[in-house]
């Protein structure tokens, strides 16, 4: 007699299948949460990169990209024209961010080097606002289109070179690092706690806006899509003192105060753990007017060099500076090329037209014909 095998009840099969579906669902849900957590942490720790073909192979010599941040025209174009005339055109490129619609041509500039060098996508810029950072990023983005550009120098419309083209070109190319003035901001309460956790306080840095970047760091600034939006939202300067507002100024001056262009690049590179690849100093000299009255009513700005301030002795004092002391970090930054002490500064600001003429007449950047300059004023 054959013994029959007992069949598994249908309800047991259904119950087993249902448990399997639940287990798989919980497992998939847990894996998804873990992946989201990891992605969010990586986004906070380092900005994402845009897809860009990094063209490291290029023909010809490496270039220095001179990036001018101008209000409108370039009042010192005659000096820069002489500077570029003494250089090899294969060694440099020029980009200008001016007000929207402004065109550099024979009617607006005294130097053909600036013809049509304006950005077509420029924006309105205001001091102490995030628009200043946006303009810097637009300049870097335009310059990155040329793979031969290997150094990126940000300059204002009042900057002047302290040496001839050959000296500055060789100095910039001699270092594999970027020059970014960067230090801990301990005295001023510019860090906004609302920036956390995207920007932790221990990564907050301050420094000069006038930077010189190697190509990889320029890409880091242009590709940033995480840090800049936080700056735009939470780093804003407070209104300056306005006599017409009387006692209301007391309330306005209690608002949080932050100057974006003095913190953005420094903080971004600190967030990206790139400080070891920096010379943590600027190559552009500024003489600051630290008057409290001036700061309250106009904001702290560098003093302007006049004709009388631009003589050989004054210029020599700037050229002789070979170290910078950072009080908040008790750090002395010696300016070296390998083990040799070198001058810290290659450029200076803010120069008036008279001061720039005197610099040219002293033969700092090249020969100078004053009569030709006066006859071609736009």
TrEMBL record:
Residues that span the membrane, as ranges: 12-34
Keywords for this entry? Answer: Glycoprotein, Glycosyltransferase, Membrane, Transferase, Transmembrane, Transmembrane helix
Q: Where mainly found?
A: membrane
Where found, per UniProt? Membrane
Molecular function terms in GO for this entry? glycosyltransferase activity
Topology with regard to the membrane? Single-pass type II membrane protein
Q: Which PANTHER family match?
A: CORE-2/I-BRANCHING BETA-1,6-N-ACETYLGLUCOSAMINYLTRANSFERASE FAMILY PROTEIN-RELATED (PTHR31042), OS01G0695200 PROTEIN (PTHR31042:SF70)
* Protein name, UniProt field: Core-2/I-branching beta-1,6-N-acetylglucosaminyltransferase family protein
Q: Which organism is it from?
A: Ilex paraguariensis
